[in-house]
Design a protein that fits this description.
- The structure is a single chain.
- It contains five helices and ten strands.
- It has helices spanning 3-19, 24-31, 35-42, 50-60, 64-67; strands at 86-88, 91-99, 105-112, 117-120, 127-134, 137-140, 145-148, 152-156, 160-164, 168-175.
- The chain has two domains: 3-67, lambda repressor-like DNA-binding domains (434 Repressor (Amino-terminal Domain)), CATH 1.10.260; 80-175, Jelly Rolls (Sandwich), CATH 2.60.120.
- The N and C termini lie far apart (56 Å).
- With 183 residues, the chain is α+β, with helices and mostly antiparallel strands.
- The relative contact order is 0.13.
- A hairpin with a 2-residue loop joins strand 1 (86-88) and strand 2 (91-99).
């Protein structure tokens, strides 16, 4: 094993063990690997055999691959200009998250010019939350209408048409969940 692999094992082993709330002794007992070996692995000073790696991984409820995997980045910061956009009437849609297609969870930023009308569709059993960060909007959800002024939030269980009364910015979260205050 390379030093990099030993370092990855050390970091991942300690993180996984601590997540379970186990001491090194508890992991040793659960895996059948001596506690000094666990300590050496966590210090990055040991090269485990395949048998040891398998026993430790099994005790931690993971795989050997996960023991040697590089940790994902803890954060990703990008310019809004780097986010792909789509035209939306006289505005732009910035999809920030899209998980699972039409009925899955999605989060987007909408920048609309005054007098723009757009329909925001959701799946048959979905919900959506609209946050008016900037500007004033009118909502029409088929069964009714209402104002969505700046610095207000709308909770909807239906698709809705948005009419931007002024230039503005909306954030939209949609997906399958129960909204607060709704049965």
């Amino acid at each position: 094993m390379t030093d990099d692999a030993s370092t990855l094992i050390a970091r991942n082993l300690k993180r996984l063990r601590e997540r379970l709330g186990w001491s090194q002794a508890a992991l040793a007992e659960s895996s059948g690997v001596p506690r000094p070996t666990i300590a050496h692995l966590e210090a990055g000073q040991a090269n485990p055999t395949l048998s040891v790696a398998l026993r430790v991984a099994r005790a931690l409820g993971t795989t050997v691959d996960q023991l040697v995997a590089a940790a994902p980045d803890a954060a990703l910061i990008v310019s809004l200009k780097a986010v792909p956009t789509a035209r939306l009437g006289r505005g732009r849609r910035y999809p920030l998250l899209n998980e699972g297609g039409q009925n899955g969870l999605s989060f987007e930023r909408l920048v609309l010019k005054a007098a723009t009308r757009v329909t925001l569709e959701i799946g048959s059993s979905g919900s959506q939350i609209l946050v008016a960060e900037q500007g004033d909007f009118e909502l029409d959800w088929g069964e009714g209408q209402g104002a969505l002024p700046e610095a207000h939030v709308a909770f909807l269980r239906l698709s809705a048409e948005i009419h931007a009364k002024t230039d503005g910015v909306l954030y939209r979260l949609s997906g399958l969940w129960n909204l607060p205050g709704f049965p």
